[in-house]
Design a protein that fits this description.
With about 525 residues, the protein is an alpha+beta fold. Helices cover about 35% and strands about 15% of the residues. The chain contains 16 helices and 16 strands.
Amino acid sequence: MSGGFDLRDEPWIPVRLLTGESVRLGLRGLFQRAHEIADVELPVPPAAAGLLRLLAVMTARIGQDAGVRLDDAGVAEDIEDWHALRRRVLKQGRFDPQAVDAYFDQEVPAGRFDLFDEHRPFLQDPRLAAECVDPRGAPNRSGVNKLVLGRPTGVNGAVLFGHFTDGSPVAVPAHEAAWHLIAQLYFGPSGQCTPRRITTVRTGSGDAAPLRKSMSYFAWAPQLFTTLVLAVPGPQVEADWEAADACPWEEELNAPLEPVPAMTWPGRLLTGRFRHAALLVPSPDRRSVTDAYLTWSTHEPAPQVRDPYQILDRRRDDAFQPREADGARALWRDLDSLLLKDSAHNAQRPPCLEDLPKQLLPSLRVRAYGFEQDGQQKDSVWFQATTPPVLQWQEETDTAMAYHISRCHRVAEDTASRLEFAAKVAWRLATDAQADPSPQAKVRIDQRKPGPWASAALARYWPAAERKFWHLAAPEQTAAAVERPFVEAALSVLDEAIGQANRADIRVARARSRARALLLALLPATHTA
């Protein structure tokens, strides 16, 4: 039995319609009804971040006007011509159903979208069944638990949310397996993996996936149709314009021991940087996955290209790297990096947020997906968040608001740093009888024993600061003094962290007074009077 789960028509992508109804659709239905869809509700954010890249490439193949597609290399030679084409596609308000069918049924070879196709399963390498074997030639599979993010693997894997052990694996439904396959290809680990025996060098070691431990940001419109068209990266990227562009499901299998194909726009830019290879093992009825192979796909140097959905932060050596995901960092703290263009010297805005149609800006939000991980094997937490319609405040459109947002964020961060320091000072003064509590005395902080007040205060501060931030994030507040709201929030959470009972102690009272003075010093002189 071959195939059996065709992603073109099987309902595997959960979405919410504009009517509020939640349904699952295949790729065909998603594109044909994109103008009726409000949101993608995929519950695994790393998979959603990868899926949107796949959908962006398909959008470039499907979105067209008068037969000219968004991935037309000739139009891409002039960025203004490409922007004009994008505007005409957006004006149509939906994808042409015939163009959708033509891509899925005619342009891509048969079976390439089938999750279990015998010859070319979607985003998989069927050669792994013969190459991932033990020294005796028996299949050496990775296990279904290795495929599914969040499940424990190995003999020491912790069982937290379900009894998924390697000794008694639980099959995963095919539609969920597709999510985790995408997530593994974009966020998979480096280091030891199932050996792939086609070379004697690094047979069981792989490199990190291209998006590992990173954040992704997308312009988010009220309808998925507009979101997908805006997700197509502009052609102002560094790419090989001579080579033919292709995605894994559009071309022949790669040669693992040969150089990585040249990066082309937009297909290989978004789908051609995988460092892992996978093969799913289906159940007899092809409705679930019972096992999987996960290994390396190449050891060749990774191509150095700019991902269009990432913020780049300046490192100490002045080079730039993608902003890393932090599960404790709220999305509003990234807003200035999304709004400012050339003024943000230490951060570079995602290219996908450049040159957005001005008439759409008042309705555009930002959707962020993050996966906090280390560089090798540890996965901590994944998350997603969506802003209000903030892209109308980009620097090119509303300079005053862009700088106001940046100022609010900077003050909030400075106040947090001072709060952390003040809480540590207070703890030292309250617990060290030898410390000098006088206002001008220097206090030496023991970073190995900072005390509990700093972490408790910061945990309370950031939610309070977010409320202050969104109150200030309004055009009528651009001339307002923004320091006092954040300082008042810091003073309040400092008191909560110290606790009412503790403040009755004279030594704690003096320590609290010193800490409050450190926070009040952040206010301009006219505010402290």
